[in-house]
Each structure stands twice: as C-alpha cells, then as structure tokens.
Amino acid sequence: MARKVLVLGEVRDGSLRNVSFEAVAAGKTASEGGEVVGVLIGDSVSALANEMIHYGADRVVTVEDEKLKQYTPDGYSQALMAVIDSERPEGLIFGHTALGKDLAPKIAAKLESGLISDVTSLEEAGGNLVFTRPIYSGKAFEKKIVTDGLLFATIRPNNIAPLEKDESRTGDVASVAAEIKDLRTIIKEVVRKASEGVDLSEAKVIIAGGRGVKSEEGFEPLKELASLLNGAVGASRGACDADYCDYSLQIGQTGKVVTPDLYIACGISGAIQHLAGMSNSKVIVAINKDPEANIFKVADYGIVGDLFEVVPLLTEEFKKLKV
Ligand code: FAD
C-alpha cells in the first residue's frame, strides 16, 4: 500500500547526522512507492533540506523557531505535531538515537499509536512490511508487521544503508508554522565533553578497550589505531569503572549500543552486559591474553596475546596498507 511517510532529520552542530539518511532509506521502503517527506526542526535548518532530498526524500518541511535551537521534548513534539496535523502521514520514521528514543514514545502516545523501536532492518515479504528488531539484549531477533493504523518506527543507526546521494534530485521545501510555547525545559547551556574524532554511535570502526588496558595511558595505542582507521574508541564498563576513560565511551547494556562494520575488543572479557551493546557488529575481532575469555565466543577473529604487542603490530600493518 503506497503511503506518505515522514522522516525526521537529526541536526547536530549544523549538519545532518548520518542516521537521517538511513531513516530516509527506511522511509522509502516503508512508503511502498508513496511519498517520503523529510522533516527538519531547529532555529535555522532549511539550508539542510536539499541534502535530505539528495538522499531520497521527495520533499522537505521545516519548522524553524529560535526556541527550537536545542532539543527539548516539549518544543520538538509541538513542532512535530504541527507537521503531522498538516501532512496527515501514514508512517513516521526516526533514528533510534538519544533524541529519537526520547521523542518517539511521546509522539506515539499523543497519536495513540504503536511504535516499533530499534529496528535493524525493514523489508517487504509476503505482501507485508516486516520490521526486524533485536530482543533479549541482541540474543534473538523478532519480526513485526503493522496490521492497522500508523506505521511508526525508530531505526538503529548503522544498520540500514542510505540510498546513494544524487545531487541532481530536486524537491519542494516548505515551512510549517508551529506555536512553540509553555516549554517546561529550558536549555541554558550545552557543555560538551571534549571528545575526539568520530561519533561512537555512528562509527564504522570501533577499537574498544577493557580493564586489560590497565590505565588511561593504556588507551593511547587504541586511539592511534582508531584514528588511522577513521574510527572511534569505545570501552567496557570495567575500563570506565577503573577510571581509565570517560563513561561516555561505555558500550553495553547500560552504555551505548553499537553496530559498526568492525569492532576490535582489546582486553575485554566479554561479560554478557558488554556483549549486549556490541554483539551485532558486523565483524568482531577480539584480542585477549586468556584463550578461555568469553569474548572469543562472539568473535569472528580471535587473537590470543598481549594487546600492548598486538595493537601496535596491527597499526603498523594498517599503515602499510594505507601507503
Ligand atoms: P574484565 O572482566 O576484568 O576483563 C579484562 C580482560 O582483559 C580479561 O579477559 C583479561 O584476560 C584481559 N587482559 C588483561 N590484560 C591483558 C592484556 N595485556 N592483553 C590482552 N588481554 C588482557 N559492562 C560493560 O562493558 N558494559 C555495560 O553496559 C555493562 N552494564 C552492566 C550492567 C549491570 C547491571 C551489571 C551488573 C554489570 C554491567 N557491566 C557492563 C559490567 C560487566 O558485568 C563486566 O564487569 C565488565 O564488562 C567487565 O569489563 P572488562 O571486560 O573490561 O573487565
């Protein structure tokens, strides 16, 4: 059934996050030949509209207001509800990001709709649109179809490939007026952690360190390899608890959930709570001194050895490939 699908674009530091383009691709599948409408919310976002169109949106609507400069649940839901009222979509797709996870249930409740969260793939099968999502901390997957009402999903970053960018694509860009009022949260200042390099939740390559890294300085060889591969550094909770690195790097059940193309786990034992955040990575390499370490059970490639020897050797070899 052809349907109109709204796709929320996520803006950070004046640019669209990659998950926005992945959501457009999911929206295209969900529209089943209907229309994909990008939605941009912020204080000055219309300049980004064409990029959503280049990645496959048929047109874009924007809601601009200086009160929308920073994300607040009230402000964004008022803006989005104004768009939903004017567009009357049959589908909604957001990224399963911190913003999407906060906003989507709120909108679903307002619309009295269901919500399929954390979708890792979406395809047409047997006349149905089938949404796949991990359950039990990634140990199993469930498949869902929507039989009635709004088709509303959040998609996990790094799982659904964006469509090829086509700069010759054109489409309408229009603004929707929304009254943004009675905000219960006012963001006075955003204090950023001094993070280096690539965003962990969108990284294609992650070099993660555990308690085996032994110190803050022990992360240096991991950082070098990550920077060479244009990747990000992550960590187990063991490393965070030991104060070797910041908690913003923690991957796992109570940290970030990541699905990079390549995950290199260095000195991480592979506790179930860590696996919950990374076991769906496409290729997993584990480096551990203990051949019995649990991490080897999920690894595609295992290296039994001292990470302080193995990681610099890998860096040397990757450097040769880059020459
Ligand atoms: P360890 O288990 O101590 O493993 C260190 C590993 O390093 C060992 O396997 C050792 O053989 C290896 N090693 C040591 N030296 C070297 C060397 N030189 N070279 C190579 N290998 C070496 N954990 C998470 O990671 N993320 C979570 O989100 C999370 N959430 C949790 C939630 C709850 C409710 C609970 C109870 C726990 C949670 N944990 C989480 C903690 C989890 O149970 C483990 O304690 C933690 O993951 C262990 O971290 P680690 O693997 O770095 O440390």
Describe the structure.
The chain is 27% helix and 25% strand. It is an alpha/beta fold and 323 residues long. A hairpin with a 2-residue loop joins strand 8 (121-125) and strand 9. Helix 3 (73-87) crosses helix 4 (98-111) and helix 5 runs parallel beside helix 8. It binds flavin-adenine dinucleotide. Flavin-adenine dinucleotide (FAD) binds at residues 210-212, 236-239, 250-255, 267-269, 271, 273-274, 277, 287-290, 293, 306-308.
Features:
about 325 residues, five-stranded parallel sheet, alpha/beta, 8 helices, seven-stranded parallel sheet, about 25% strand, binds flavin-adenine dinucleotide
Order of helices and strands: EEEHEHEHEHEEEEEEEHEHEHEEH
What's the total number of strands? 17
Shape: globular
Please summarize the sheet with the most strands.
7 strands, parallel
- Oligomeric nature of the chains: single chain
Organism: Sporosarcina globispora
Protein name: Electron transfer flavoprotein subunit alpha
Cofactor: FAD
Binding site for FAD: 211, 236-237, 250-254, 267-274, 288
Q: In a few lines, what is going on in this structure?
A:
With 323 residues, the chain is an alpha/beta fold. The strands form four sheets. Strands 7-11-6-1-4-5-12 form a seven-stranded parallel sheet, sandwiched between helices.
